[in-house]
Amino acid sequence: MELRTLRYFLTVCQEGTMSRAAEVLHVTQPALSRQIAALERELGTPLLERHSRSVTPTERGLYLRRRAEEIVGLADQTTADFAQPDGIVAGTVRIGAGESQGMRVIARAARAFREAYPGVRFQLHSANAIDLVERLEHGLDDLAVLMNFPDVDRYAHLRLRPTDAWGVYMRSDDPLAEQTTVSPTDLGDAPLIVPERLWRDNEPTGVLTTWLGAEAAKIEVAATYNLNYNAAVFVREGAGRMIGYEGLNDVGPDTELAFRLLFPPIVAPIHLAWKRNAALPHAARLFLDHLRKGWGDNGQRDERG
User: Domains of the chain, with CATH numbers?
Assistant: First the structure.
C-alpha cells in the first residue's frame, strides 16, 4: 500500500463521493477510481459500497479507514519532526488524558514551556484508559495521563503531584448535600451513575468493590459513563447521583450540583506515562524533561524510559 493511495481512500471516505474527492485531491475522477480499485484488488476485498450518488465504506473499509488514519498521522508527524531546523524547538506534543486534576499540572507546565518554546503546540485527546493505552501503543500519542492505572509499570512514568479524590456529585437539593461526606450506607436510596471501569457485569470492580463492601448488593446503577460531561447532565436532570473525581464539575448554588467526598476516602494516583525505550519527538522529550524538573513529585518514582 502506498501512502498516497491511503490518502486518496481517506479523502473519498470523508467526502462521500468520488467526484468531490477528486476535486479536493486535484486529480481526475477516472484516475481516482482506478487508484481505489487497485487498492481493493491489492487487499482482496471491496472497500466501498457504490451507490448512485455516493459511496460509503464497507465493514472492512471502515477498518482500513481507522488504520489509514493512524498510518497517515504517523507519517505526517514524522515528516514534521524532521522538518524542524537544528536548534529550533517546534512541533506538536501529543498528550492523551482522562478527565483528571492532573491536567492542571500539565496545563501549567505547558504554559511555562511555551514561554520558552513558542513554536511548540499541544494536541490533546480525551478518552478512557483503554483508549489512551491503545493510542500510546500505536504511537498516536507521545504521553498519556493515567489515573489509578493498575498496569502503569508497563510504561516509563512520572508520578504527578496531585491525586484525584473520589466523591459523589448530586443535585443541590439532594438530602445528601447536607452531609460533609458520603459513606457506603448513604448510597442505597437512589440510583447511581458510575464510571464504566468501576462497574462491570452488574458488579462493582476495583477500589469500589472494597469501599462498598456488603452495601454493594443494595446499589442500583442507572447508567455508566466513560467521560464526565454527559454524566453530569444526567445528575442535573435527576437521573441519579454520580460517582466521580473531585473538581471536574463546577458545584455551588448557581450550578444545580453539589459534591461530597467519599468516606473512608478513595484517592487515585496520577501518572504521566510513555512507552519504554521509545524515541520521543524532540519537543515531547524536552517537555518531559521540563516536567521532571519542576512538576512531578520528586518523592515518588520516576521510571525513565
Answer: 3-73 (1.10.10.10), 83-162+269-303 (3.40.190.10), 164-267 (3.40.190.10)
Half-sphere exposure of 155 (CA within 13 A, CB side): 22
In 3-state terms the chain splits into helix, strand, coil percentages (rounded to 5) of 45, 25, 30
Closest CA to 272 of 69, 77, 132: 132
- pLDDT (tens digit per residue) in 37-68: 999 999 999 999 999 889 999 999 999 998 89
pLDDT digits (tens, 9 = 90+) for 248-293: 899 988 899 999 999 999 998 899 999 988 788 889 999 999 998 8
Cell, residue 229: 460531561
**Nearest CA among 163, 161, 156, 162 for reference residue 288:** 156
Full-model pTM: 0.66
C-alpha cell at 18: 468520488
Distance between CA atoms of residues 140 and 143, nearest Å: 9
- CA 19 vs CA 4, 33, 41, 239: distances in Å: 18, 10, 21, 47
